[in-house]
# Entry
Amino acid sequence: MSPKLRLMQAALAVAVAATWVWLGMVLAISFLEAPLKFRAPGVTLQLGLGIGRLVFRALNTCEAVLAVVVAAGLAVGGGSAGTWVAAVVAAAMLVGQVVFVRPALTRRSDQVLAGADGPRSRAHYGYVALELVKVVALITTGVLLLTG
# Structure
């Protein structure tokens, strides 16, 4: 096997791993940790929001790094057009969350942390919708990478 072919295979293997790690992180944080933290004894709304802000900032940072790793793996490994489309959709959902939705969530959590009452932010629904699309895109990316 030529060194170039080995490099391409290794790059795609890294893209596979990064895709599934990214998916696992999203599922664990967004769909498990986030809702459960508010059910823990002694966790107030303010405390939960403070924790959530830290956790989601860290998650989004890790996601951005993983998105770059996936893109690099696809670029070096010669990923298919369908794999690229799915990966770009996942990355675009992340950008949408960070650029468009998180600022609204931050404004609302700032208000709550300052003691304001009021209805729950509708921005949460937008974040969850983008998260669901991202999950489907990551599963698609991972499956396409594995099936070749």
